[in-house]
């Protein structure tokens, strides 16, 4: 960790004031060097008070997004430990795929304040003003077979839902397989992409886009999208959410590895599933039909009961699910 990250961490962990002398002794640098870092933090938007004969004290952190801020909050062993931060980039998924090809370690996380070429499922373009959203992509290097990788999307959905609820007082649910919603409106999109040989995974990119401080949406999604700012009624700090999601992702991924399926996460996922015990519309390439959703299988398919009582499992790669009267 850089000195700026370390000083930031120290300020956060200190209840009262910490003197410039204490900081300079701790890190073996001059008082002037400490003062310069404090000035930089103030310029980035942190409210650091400097009081004569008392020292420095951090009041509250606004929504600052920097590599140092993220590093200072990350409480994991490997997930998000190697952060690559961009003020703006084309797409964090593209960046992580490239970093993965170049040999970046398992757990590398790309984070951007703004994306210029993000896309959703089926290639839809996605606009993104600075400060409005979380765009991040995590690099995984699993040893299991490629056919198991689609389940990681559900692992990510669980982790994102839990991370958000750790930080903000909102009731978040999952729309199968991997959209995160609040009150029937979409808050998060997750896009998992694989780089594989025939029977071997090179790496997996898990892309996560969270609407955080957006207050308005384009016409075509206005009725189906929401943001944390809209739901909470206040500006939301993005960095703590990223750190919380990584903490849950690390834990849930390790649970997944124990069985290489969702057995250990079923209870958690089912409790969050908005479609559970609801009527849904299954939209396939050839047909659409209404059915009653019962839950998921250990491999992540949705179990539905048709009108005639027959039960079947539907696979996310082949169908979309909508509520009978709306998005969910």
Report on this model:
It is a single chain. The chain is α+β, with helices and mostly antiparallel strands. Helix content is 30%, strand content 29%. The protein is built from nine helices and 16 strands. The protein has helices at residues 3-13, 20-27, 31-44, 67-73, 92-101, 152-167, 228-232, 238-259, 266-272; strands at residues 48-51, 55-58, 82-89, 108-115, 118-119, 125-126, 133-140, 173-175, 179-182, 185-196, 201-211, 278-283, 288-296, 302-306, 311-314, 320-323. It has a seven-stranded mixed β-sheet, sandwiched between helices. A five-stranded antiparallel β-sheet has the order 15-14-13-12-16, with no helix packed on it. Strands 1-2 form a two-stranded antiparallel sheet. A hairpin with a 3-residue loop joins strand 1 (48-51) and strand 2 (55-58). Helix 1 crosses helix 3 (31-44) and helix 6 (152-167) runs antiparallel to helix 8. The protein starts with a helix and ends in a 5-residue tail after the last strand. The model has no long low-confidence stretch (mean pLDDT 91).
Distance between the termini: 43 Å
Strand proportion, as a percent range, falls in: 25-35%
Give me the oligomer status.
single chain
SSE order, one letter for each helix or strand:
HHHEEHEHEEEEHEEEEHHHEEEEE
Total beta strands: 16
Strand order of the largest sheet: 3-4-7-11-10-9-8
List the helices and strands and how they pair.
Elements: H1 3-13, H2 20-27, H3 31-44, E1 48-51, E2 55-58, H4 67-73, E3 82-89, H5 92-101, E4 108-115, E5 118-119, E6 125-126, E7 133-140, H6 152-167, E8 173-175, E9 179-182, E10 185-196, E11 201-211, H7 228-232, H8 238-259, H9 266-272, E12 278-283, E13 288-296, E14 302-306, E15 311-314, E16 320-323
Parallel strand pairs: 3-4
Antiparallel strand pairs: 1-2, 4-7, 5-6, 7-11, 8-9, 9-10, 10-11, 12-13, 12-16, 13-14, 14-15
């Amino acid at each position: 960790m850089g000195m700026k990250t370390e000083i930031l961490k120290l300020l956060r962990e200190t209840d009262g004031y910490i003197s410039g002398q204490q900081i300079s002794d701790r890190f073996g640098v001059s008082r002037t060097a400490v003062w310069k870092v404090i000035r930089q933090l103030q310029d980035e938007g942190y409210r650091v008070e400097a009081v004569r004969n008392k020292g420095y004290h951090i009041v509250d952190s606004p929504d600052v997004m920097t590599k140092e801020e993220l590093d200072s909050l990350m409480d994991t062993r490997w997930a998000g430990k190697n952060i690559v931060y961009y003020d703006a980039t084309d797409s964090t998924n593209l960046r992580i795929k490239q970093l993965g090809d170049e040999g970046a370690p398992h757990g590398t996380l790309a984070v951007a304040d703004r994306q210029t070429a993000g896309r959703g499922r089926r290639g839809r373009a996605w606009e993104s003003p600075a400060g409005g959203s979380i765009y991040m992509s995590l690099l995984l290097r699993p040893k299991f077979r490629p056919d198991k990788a689609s389940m990681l999307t559900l692992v990510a959905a669980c982790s994102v839902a839990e991370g958000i609820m750790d930080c903000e007082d909102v009731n978040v649910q999952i729309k199968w397989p991997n959209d995160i919603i609040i009150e029937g409106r979409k808050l998060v999109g997750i896009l998992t992409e694989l780089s594989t040989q025939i029977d071997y995974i090179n790496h997996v990119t898990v892309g996560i886009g969270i609407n955080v401080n957006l207050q308005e949406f384009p016409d075509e999604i206005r009725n189906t999208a929401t943001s944390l700012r809209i739901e909470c009624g206040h500006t939301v700090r993005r960095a703590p959410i990223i750190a919380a999601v990584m903490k849950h992702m690390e834990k849930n991924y390790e649970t997944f590895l124990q069985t290489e399926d969702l057995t250990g996460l079923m209870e958690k996922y089912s409790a969050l599933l908005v479609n559970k015990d609801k009527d849904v519309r299954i939209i396939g390439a050839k047909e659409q039909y209404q059915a009653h959703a019962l839950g998921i299988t250990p491999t992540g398919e949705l179990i539905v009961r048709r009108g005639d009582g027959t039960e079947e499992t539907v696979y996310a790669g082949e169908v979309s699910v909508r509520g009978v009267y709306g998005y969910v």
